[in-house]
UniProtKB/TrEMBL annotation:
This is Glycosyl transferase. The keyword Transferase applies. One of its GO terms (biological process) is antibiotic biosynthetic process. It comes from Ktedonosporobacter rubrisoli. Residues 248-371 form the Erythromycin biosynthesis protein CIII-like C-terminal domain. Belongs to the UDP-glycosyltransferase family.
Amino acid sequence: MRYSFLILPAYGHVNPTLAIAQELVAHGQEVIYYLPEAFREAVEATGAAIRSYESRLLKGIGKVPSQRGEVMREEMRQVLPQIMDRIRADKPDVILHDPMVLWSRIVIQLLQVPAISLRPTYAMNEHFNMASMLESRPNHHLPGMKEVVEKTNEVLAEICASYHVPPVSFMEEMMYAEPLNIVFLPKAFQPEAQTFDERFLFVGPSIAPRRQASDFPLDQLNYDRPLLYVSLGTIFNTESAFYKQCFEAFGESDYQVVLSHGKHIDLSALGPIPENFLLSSYVPQLEILERAKVFVTHSGMNSTMESLYYGVPMVAIPQMVEQEMTAQRIAEMGLGLALEKDAVTSAGLRAAVERVANDVTIHERVQQIKQYTRESGGYKLAAEAIMQFAWQSR
């Protein structure tokens, strides 16, 4: 069987699929990804092939909805002409797609190929969608989102017309249910979980050892000190002021602090680095979470799921509206605390970490969901379901 993977070119979306691809290849299946060149090493390490294309998303999608919307719309216009003929020539038996790849519905309609949805974040239906979750929060805000969705729908209609397929809308794509929808969350973390039928398979985080080269100095970890891990992910990692707050909050503490700062920060602008801090542009997150006591995170879904898998309580500091939803979920499930990024102070950050590190109730709940998460099936259950679906679709 040949599987085509149409995944949003962002690490939080690609990473959960890699273990599945590796498992499919191990079972003699053929897997082809369509992604920018930057993902080649990670994809080929699984045994899968890659067809690369040029993408604007890797250059940054912006921090406000209007900026992200503009880049996403330009991405839709530019990517499909680059790869449509190659997907058609590859003749996939099954297409596995990320709902955030809005043009994937066009490919599926054109090729009339069975499809599976791979969802790195919350599943949605008529009972739950992300907008309604935000609206349930006090002082919720969706700045510019209505306009972003309207403009996105206009571009989708334009592209659909150019390929002579029926139009799709942003929300229709987000809520569209394939015969099989694999969700990379434990079902307990999914809001309104009881309203999703058997088409939705909640496998939890898809985690397998990563084969990505790293020069992170694991030998410098001090096993005599509790480890505090700080990361704002791969997009929102240029926050110099926040990193200085971390220095002030934990520079004199008992923690060894591992801080992931990405590739675009000027370290000289941060001032003296405390002796108990270990800074790196790239951190092997799974290895660090395996022994971390607390995780200060942007509450991206991929990082959140990995934290649950390793049973690490979180201090969530969301950087965008989608992450606010997950931070809220972390807090309401008693898995950690949520802070508003604009209200963070050194003292408040220190107090939050101490509370999360020492709260017995938080610790118990995190351990409970760790067990539940690990029993959800992960990539092995996902690959098994995919192969069964492909066989039945022949």
